[in-house]
Design goal:
Aminopeptidase, OB fold (Dihydrolipoamide Acetyltransferase, E2P), 5-stranded antiparallel sheet, 8 helices, 20 strands, 28% helix, 26% strand, binds zinc ion
């Protein structure tokens, strides 16, 4: 293993942030894995999982079992890690601009398409290499204006040539779940099995330009543009993994999740050795647009009636809101049958606040499918 430092554009005099990437294996294997955690800097479970994966990779590398190159960034957002207000860490949004660190990644499909026009042929592998080279050139040609943009660009440059891309996050209070592209679900499904994901939420374009979609949606767009003339591969299997809730930070859980990731990489042939038997899929994949989102119909004390990860039925009571002035109780029921995969950690809510989500098979939403 060796490590590299990537100094980011300084926002003000005398300050600087840097990203640290850890590198394993060799490019010679022709397969690359990219793992990052902490892009939302207040989501600590994924960072502990990434560090646990790092320990395991060091052993695997010493045993000579690595059949790929791995790039691992265990703390992908030094800006967010440094933000504190009145004693509370703010890791999801940049304080200066309000931008969500995992939204607005550059989507360069039109520019890549223009750059590779006339350079594609009958060989899918060659086309993949041509596209990756053009993508890299476009990213390198960008002149980021702010530290935020430089960080996003640096993370993209570290990952655009990876075959498997894992972005480790968590939710507020949640069961293990993941987000990925519809087209790459067959390749991501074994990961969902090893992780024991209770929900796998699929979209072509969730509208948020998240990190995983900056990869998968770009390849999907290039397939739409050129797919009838030339073979365009899926490019990468990019997955956002939600390692339960923000407080689910223990060595036991990190070991369990890191082992699942290593098993998946072994299954994919990136690590030498027999693959662990595939466990059953805990719950079928569902469209992200099928998730029912609950919002507070009034302000008040929020009582949770269902644990995260539970299967719920249509009509089941999920929340109760208690008015703080007169004690009036308002019940909120699910209109969807599925898995109650995440809920907010608040115990007092304002009118209209988001409360939680249940996965569903029927498409019921459109537009921007992700939360702010
Ligand atoms: Zn996140």
């Amino acid at each position: 293993m060796h490590s590299a430092k990537h100094r980011l554009l300084a926002a003000t005099d005398g300050t600087a942030h840097q990203l640290i990437s850890h590198h394993f294996g060799s490019e010679a294997h022709g397969k690359k894995i990219y793992i990052q955690a902490g892009l939302h800097a207040d989501e600590i479970p994924g960072m502990l999982v990434a560090l646990t994966v790092m320990d395991k990779l060091q052993q695997i590398e010493q045993q000579g079992r690595l059949r790929c190159e791995v790039v691992l960034v265990s703390a992908a957002n030094p800006i967010g890690l440094s933000q504190y207000v009145l004693g509370y860490g703010i890791g999801r949004f940049e304080l200066a601009s309000g931008r969500n660190f995992n939204r607005g990644f550059p989507l360069l499909a039109p520019q890549i398409a223009d750059a590779v026009e006339g350079k594609l042929g009958a060989d899918a592998e060659a086309n993949r290499a041509v596209i990756r080279a053009a993508w890299r050139e476009l990213l390198l040609a960008q002149q980021p204006r702010q530290t935020f943009d430089d960080m996003q660009r640096t993370l993209m440059l570290l990952s655009i040539d990876a075959d498997i891309i894992l972005d480790l996050h968590c939710s507020r209070e949640a069961t293990m779940h993941l987000y990925t592209g519809e087209a790459i679900w067959p390749d991501a499904e074994p990961l969902a099995r090893y992780l024991g994901a209770r929900a796998s939420l699929l979209a072509v374009d969730s509208g948020g330009q998240s990190f995983d979609e900056a990869h998968s949606f770009t390849w999907w767009k290039l397939q739409q543009r050129f797919g009838e003339q030339f073979p365009i591969p899926r490019g990468s299997t990019a997955v956002t993994v939600e390692h339960r809730g923000q407080r689910d930070v223990t060595d036991e859980l990190a070991q369990q999740d890191a082992t699942a990731i290593i098993e998946y990489l072994t299954y994919c042939g990136a690590i030498d050795g027999p693959a662990a038997p595939l466990p059953p899929l805990a719950w079928p994949a569902t469209p992200l647009a099928g998730s029912e989102q609950f919002h507070a119909p009034s302000a008040g004390i929020l009582l949770h009636c269902v644990d995260a990860g539970a299967e719920v039925s249509v009509g089941q009571q999920i929340f109760v809101i208690v008015d703080t002035a007169d004690g009036t109780r308002t019940s909120i029921h699910s209109r969807t049958a599925g898995i109650f995969y995440m809920r907010r950690d608040a115990r007092y809510v304002r009118q209209g606040d988001p409360l939680g989500r249940v996965s569903g098979h029927e498409v019921i939403r459109s537009g921007n499918l992700l939360s702010a």
